[in-house]
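pinging the channel bc i need a second pair of eyes. not urgent but kinda urgent?? the chain im working w is below, pasted from the shared doc
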Amino acid sequence: MALTLIAQGKAIAQDPHFSQFYASPLTLNPANTGLFSGDVRLATNYRNQWRTVATPFTTATVACDVQLLNNKIGNDLFGFGMVGMLDQSNNQGLKANFAGLSTAYNKSIDRRGYHRIGVGLQASLVSKKVDYSRFVFSRQFTPTGFDPTASNGEPMSGFTLNYLDLAAGIIYSGINDAQSQWYLGASMYHLNRPNEAINAAENNLLQPRLSCHGGLNFRLGELNRIYFSGLYMNSAITEEIMTGAVFESTIRNYQYDTKLFSGMYYRVGDAIIPYIGINTGEMSVGFSYDINVSSMKTATQSRGGFEIALQLNLSKNTENNKIPRCYNRF
């Protein structure tokens, strides 16, 4: 295996991300903090990728955000949240841990609270570790075969980087009398351009990453709804475009309506992503699978990554969970 993420004494890594980007609101845009129906939102995501090629790449998050001052700021929303992420790849030779705090204020710009503009900030402590013993180097291949005990030629066993990472975001969200909803947001990560150089005397400044996301949904009859959404991400080394649609079907229940979801997303040039999910009032669960259509499809046998997302919206008054404050379910 070639060590492609270490070059000229610098650690270069792509930011972890999810196909279900809409189900990880605090890693998508800090302005999403507190933008939901209820009092407390708990969310967790898990992604397992490229099992057919090598040891799977694994990414997992856990997040919690709350609404504050609801009785004092009218139709505005003020949120505070915490998020943690674990990302490991290349036979666990590359590990990254993130722990962050975020806050956002979504200001109502009309009397009914149908339109809001929000801004958010996030600060994260990041720790990245590289363990050379987990990699395979070309010089370990001998005339008699691979020798894991042979020297890899590296002057050290690995290294660890620790730094502060800052992000900010903005979002506009709206709803009309027909209960059609829409949103448009943008966020910028690595605003402070932390240094990822191995040697303290060098500079390998992490380039900012821009994310733009938006969505529109509307009713189809009395019990159905259709969601359209998309994501664009750009940094110095990567660019990603995703778009897709999800169909919602409602099953009437005594206390909470059960909502069933099915849809499809497409990551341009990379993967087709079927999705299914269910919402039972307080709890939402979503499943997706990346079907690889890129140049790696032969090696991966068209298998990409499995992903699951779980979200709980809790409230002292369960009726608050029905208030249409969350414009970015998808």
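so The first helix runs from residue 25 to 28. and The helical segments are 25-28, 297-300. — does that match what u expected or am i reading it wrong
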